[in-house]
Amino acid sequence: MVPRKYPCRPIVVDGHNSTDPWHENPIITANFYNLTAWKNGRNGAIAKTVGDIRFIDFKTADNQLAGIEMSVTNERTGDERAGVYDALIIGRSGNEEKKLL
């Protein structure tokens, strides 16, 4: 999930252009707001490879594995903006669902 101006086009990095190596398909910011997730079978929110993605005002509680999970941040973008902002994340409490086998 690396948001860019032309999402259906590939990410192209121009190593010869140090001021804007992504000029052919510029990297953009994607904001996700106000998710409420509880008692899910895995995670409240999950993203594998993320660029400039921001989870804002998320509330998660008692999910089986994690409230919010990101595997690789800032992939191919070089920035440091991916993250979770103004969130309430409660891991496991005595109120979580037991996993059924």
Gist?
The chain has 101 residues and is an all-beta fold. It has one domain (1-92).
What does this structure look like?
The chain has 101 residues and is mainly β. The chain has one domain (1-92). The chain is built from no helices and 8 strands. It has strands at residues 30-33, 36-38, 43-50, 53-56, 59-61, 66-73, 83-85, 88-90. A 3-stranded parallel beta sheet has the order 1-4-7, with no helix packed on it. Strands 2-5-8 form a 3-stranded parallel beta sheet, with no helix packed on it. The protein is elongated and about 55 Å long. The model has no long low-confidence stretch (mean pLDDT 82).
Rg, rounded, reads: 17 Å
Structure summary, number of beta strands:
8
- How much of the residues is beta strand, in percent? 35-45%
Helix count, DSSP H or I runs of 4 or more residues? 0
Report the principal-axis shape: elongated
Q: Output the helix-strand order.
A: EEEEEEEE
Distance between the termini: 32 Å
Total domain count: 1
Mean pLDDT: 82
Helix content: under 10%
Largest beta-sheet characterization? 3 strands, parallel
List the uncertain runs.
none
Class per helix and strand makeup: mainly beta
Strand order of the largest sheet: 1-4-7
